[in-house]
Amino acid sequence: MTRRRLIIGLSVVLVLLGLATATGWIGWSQPRFAIDGLSELNPDVLFQVQTSEKVVALTIDDGPYRAITPHVLDLLRERGIHATFFVLGDNIAGNEDLLRRMQAEGHEIGNHLVEDQPSVLLPAEEFERQMLAVDPWVDAEASHRWLRPGSGWFTPGMVEQAAQYGYRICLASIFPHDDRVHEPTRLAHDVLGRVYPGAIIVLHDGQEERVRLPETLALVLDGLQARGYRVGTISELVAR
Questions:
Q1: Does the annotation mark 61 as catalytic?
Q2: What is the third-level CATH fold of 31-239?
Q3: In this predicted model, what pLDDT tens digit does every residue of 112-155 receive, in sequence order?
Q4: Domain extents for the chain?
Q5: Which of 7, 44, 64, 73 is the S-S candidate for 98 at Cβ 3.0 to 4.6 Å?
Q6: Which residue among 44, 204, 205, 222 is the active-site one?
Q7: Is 71 among the residues known to form the active site?
Q8: Residue 4 vs residues 10, 12, 33: alpha-carbon distances, Å
C-alpha cells in the first residue's frame, strides 16, 4: 500500500509539473490558439481583431520617458505611422509636452493606470483612482477608449468598472518580453516570426534598460513593411 501511495504521489507531482511547464510555455510563447481561446472566453476584452487584411496595431506601454519617447515619436513621424501609447500616470508630470506631441501627431493615448504594477492586485477604489488620474489625457470624444491593466491580468470586475467610464480593456497578441529581453534583433525576430493579420503588438518604453526601443522598433517596422503589413493604432485596426 505504501509503495502504491508513493507511485500515485509521484504521478500527481509529475502531472502538476507538466501542467506548470505547459502553462509557462504558453505564457512565454503566446501561441495563436491560446490567444484565440482567450478572445473567445473574454469577448469584452480585445486581444486581436479578426481580419484577412495585412494590418496590425502597434502599442507602446509605460511611457512617456524623456530619454526614449522623443526618439520613438521621431521614428514614427518619419515613417508616417500612428501608434497607441498606453501611458503611466507616474510618468506624466514633467512630460506633458510629450503627451501633447503624441496627440498633435495623430497618435492614440490609452490608459495604463498610474503605477507599473499588477493592476489585478488593486482594490476597486484604487483601481478607479488610478484610472481617473490618467483619464484627462485620453480623448473623451473618441469612438474607442482603451485601458490596459498592468501586467496584463484582469478580472470581470475590472472589465465592468472600466466600462463604466467608457473604457474597453485591451491586451495584446504579440508580446516579445522586452521587459526582460533587450536585444533589438532578437526582439524583432520574435515579433516578425509570429505576426499575423489583426495582431496587436506591444513594446515597452519607460526604463533606462529599454533605451534600445527605437532600434527595435525600426527593425520591426522594416520587417512588417517588407511583409506588406500596414501599421496603425488600435482604433484604426478596429475600424477596418
A1: yes
A2: TIM Barrel (3.20.20)
A3: 999 999 999 999 999 999 999 999 999 999 999 999 999 999 99
A4: 1-29, 31-239
A5: 64
A6: 204
A7: no
A8: 10, 12, 38
